[in-house]
Amino acid sequence: MTITLKPKAPLVVPASIQRKARLKPGDRVEFQAAPGKITIVSKPPAAAAADDEYTPEQRRIIEAQLAEGLEDIKQGRVSRRFDTVVEMLASLKAGRKTSPRRKTRSR
């Protein structure tokens, strides 16, 4: 597809080209330029930039919590799987040590 650049309008990537490239709103793209040539390269989702998202201390805490969770799974310290919310709530209620709070009337 060929388009004509206009003096006061930004360069727009036509919708049909975006569809062919499978670009969606919010995707990140990188522009690379050489004389007479512009290349647009889609960048991986934000997950690839996750290392920049946290400080080293935050990353250490997250890694420790993940390791602890994996150890719990290996040791079998996990709750059973619930197929419905009703099953989960029934399990939580059955495990209560105190009676549920009663509603009080407002005067």
Explain this structure to me?
The protein has 107 residues and is α+β, with helices and mostly antiparallel strands. Helix content is 33%, strand content 11%. Among the domains are: 15-46, no CATH class; 54-93. The termini are far apart. A hairpin with a 2-residue loop joins strand 1 and strand 2. The protein has a two-stranded antiparallel sheet. The chain has helices at 15-20, 56-74, 85-94, and strands at 29-34, 37-42.
Our count of helices gives: 3
What radius of gyration results from the CA coordinates? 27 Å
What order do the strands of the largest sheet run in, or round the barrel if closed?
A: 1-2
Care to count the β-strands?
2
Mean pLDDT: 82
Q: Which ranges are low-confidence, i.e. pLDDT below 50, for 5 or more consecutive residues?
A: none
What structural class do you assign from the helix and strand content?
Answer: alpha+beta
What is the overall shape?
Answer: elongated
Helix content: 25-40%
Short summary:
This protein is α+β, with helices and mostly antiparallel strands and 107 residues long.
